[in-house]
Amino acid sequence: MPRSVPKVASRARRKKVLKLAKGYWGSRHNVWTIAKNHVEKGLSHAYRDRRTKKRNFRALWIIRINAAARINGTTYSRLIDALNKKNITINRKVLADLAMNQPSIFATIVQQAIA
Q1: Cβ of 51: how many Cβ atoms within 10 Å?
Q2: For 10, which of 34, 45, 77, 109 is 20 to 30 Å away at the CA?
Q3: Residue-range domains of the chain with CATH
Q4: What is the pLDDT of residues 57-100, one digit of tens each?
């Protein structure tokens, strides 16, 4: 019976990591131990930042809505409160887009909420 050697699996594992390290600078893209560490760190940053991106966009939308609301004579918190009381369900992403690209429609929404 032939002897079992884990060469194929270990080579595949290394190739997978080195493929992920493609484009890294210096020995990070071709030295196994260094590439392994940097790929692992990069993947953990990617996992973390997929969640951070959602927070950043929500904060950006709120800033844009607040700026447009102040132009229309109110504040972000008063506008959101008025929208909730009038049961106008429109999310922050759409509100921010309207505030940026169609200020006249945003102004009508503000007037409907405040009135």
Answers
A1: 8
A2: 45
A3: 8-114 (1.10.1900.20)
A4: 999 999 999 999 999 999 999 999 999 999 989 999 999 999 99
